[in-house]
Amino acid sequence: MYGNTGTYDQNTQNYAMKNELELFNKLADKLFEAEKKQPVVTPIPPAQLFDEIDVSLGEKPAPDFEETLEKLILNTPRTATKLFFNQLFGGRNPKATLGDLLAVLLNNSMYTYKVAGPQVGVEKEILRNICNRIGYPATSDGTFAPGGSMSNFMAMVMARDTYGDDVQHQGITDKLVAYTSAESHYSIPKNAALMGIGRDQVRFVATDAAGKMIPEALEKLIAIDKEAGLQPFFVNATAGTTVLGAFDSIMPISAICKQHHLWLHVDGAYCGSVIFSEKYKHLVNGLELSDSFSVNAHKMMGTPLTCSILVTKHKEHLRDSFSNDAAYLYQTDGDDYNLGKTSIQCGRRNDALKFWTLWKSVGTEGLEAIVNQQFQLAAIAREYISNHPDYTLYSFDDSISVCFNYKNIPAQQLCTGLYESSELMVGYGTFQENEFVRLVTINSGNEGSDILHFFRVLEDFVDSNAAHLDTIHKPEELSH
Ligand SMILES: *Cc1c(COP(=O)(O)O)cnc(C)c1O
After folding, report:
1. Which residues have CB under 8 Å from 17's CB, separation 6+?
2. CA–CA separation, 404 vs 237, rounded Å?
3. What is the Å distance from ligand 1's center to 184 Cα?
4. To the nearest 10°, the Cα dihedral for 417, 423, 429, 435?
5. 3-class secondary structure for 356-391?
6. DSSP label at 295?
7. Which residues have CB under 6 Å of ligand 1?
8. Which of 292, 296, 301 to mutate to test the pocket of ligand 1 (most atoms within 8 A of CB)?
9. How far apart, in whole angstroms, are the C-alpha atoms of residue 322 and residue 344?
10. Tens digit of pLDDT for each residue in 441-454?
11. String of DSSP letters for 36-48
12. Using CA of residue 445, residue 376, residue 435, residue 304, what is the dihedral sign?
């Protein structure tokens, strides 16, 4: 090994890397085989984890490194299979995965052009295309954030800095107030806490029966706060709420924001990718009126985690809030190509390449097909549920979250049972007084038959476990 020669030898190092790539391919083959045979892994209870797999780190090199690694890989929950519906991501897009593997191999940091080179172009092209697509003017720009929660954080920071004269230096002195719907993501109050604005200064606006923010309720809350001498500064609208997948109506919310000079952010982490579909982009009508918008390509677009994009109409605010002079870092090339001037991190992994390899290879048409497929699968699921009297549907059209109950079995019990018996990975959620199973049709690698298979697995499980599921009611006993 090169370590023994005392001199750095690129050939020797790459030779070692080739061995690891061989091991990688071997492990990948084993994983693919396992995914085929058993789409849902047998879960290891947390109490047994450290006994089952030797994850311990010792003084000496582990003699069974490969075996342990294999065991670890093969016991990890399988998010790429056709029975994983548990989260707002799923599947494995080969082209996007290739891009991410290459990003790891290249190991650039996106802060400067000097270090990232043409990868800067990859990132800028994605951001420019998205800004143009949603109708932002030439003064727009964006960045890749370490997740949707952080995209929301950055948007709130820009709003705060825009409102306050000198918050960056003096700290917050006014009582700033943020508004978001009761169905929005938990990162909004969390970010308010992190930012020093405070959770208590977040107002949760009521939603209608379909889980959308009620604009009149927003207007009322703003009026009350202004009356009390508080300082409204930020409104978050959601494009795809986490549980129901509902889209807040941007137009009327924007009108209220304009009237009160409030920053409007649209959190499209879950379903903002509808911008790529001619058929579904109407769900975010008025998006061009927002001040900022975020979307997770690792959700609807199916890239590996994480791929979170934040764009804003106001390039200058992105720069004002996130640039810092650093003579040791920014030594060449203008600010426009030194992306560290607009990011929240310093060193930053290349999250753009995986989305670019996908987009470049399938074109925007291909991205549109991905989006449309998910809505199509959701429609198939809703139709199945509507046609089967043992089911109760809680979802609406134009959503890729399909929420339901089966034979009135408590959703939590059903989902946990399916997981523990390694039949199916699906989660549950609540809206108003109802708790239900939430089937997310986000894996566009699935086909209609896979969705029907989902229901079959669930029904078979209930049939063969009727004795253990404590409250199976006949449909006529349903309370709703
Ligand atoms: C997933 C999600 C987020 C958070 O994104 P992360 O990348 O998980 O931090 C924010 N908002 C909504 C609506 C989401 O669905």
Report:
1. none
2. 25
3. 9
4. -50
5. HHHHHHHHHHHHHHHHHHHHHHHHHHHHHHHHCCCE
6. E
7. 88, 147-149, 185, 187, 238, 240, 242, 267, 269-270, 296, 306, 308
8. 296
9. 6
10. 999 999 999 999 99
11. HH-SSPPPPPGGG
12. positive
CA-based radius of gyration for the chain: 24
Q: What is the dihedral of CA 307, 294, 123, 372, to 10 degrees?
A: 70
Q: Which residue has 């009237």 as its token pair?
A: 259
Helical axes 10-37 vs 65-74, angle rounded to 10°: 40
Spatial CA neighbour of 113 closest among 350, 333, 351 = 333
Task: Please state, in angstroms and rounded to a whole number, the distance separating the CA atoms of residues 368 and 125.
Answer: 18
pLDDT digits (tens, 9 = 90+) for 130-171: 999 999 999 999 999 999 999 999 999 999 999 876 898 899
Would you state the structure tokens that stand for residue 454, as one six-digit string?
Answer: 């989902």
Looking up tokens 């079995």 gives: 409
A 10 A CB-CB count for 98 gives: 15
pLDDT at 251: 98
Tokens 């304009």 belong to which residue?
258
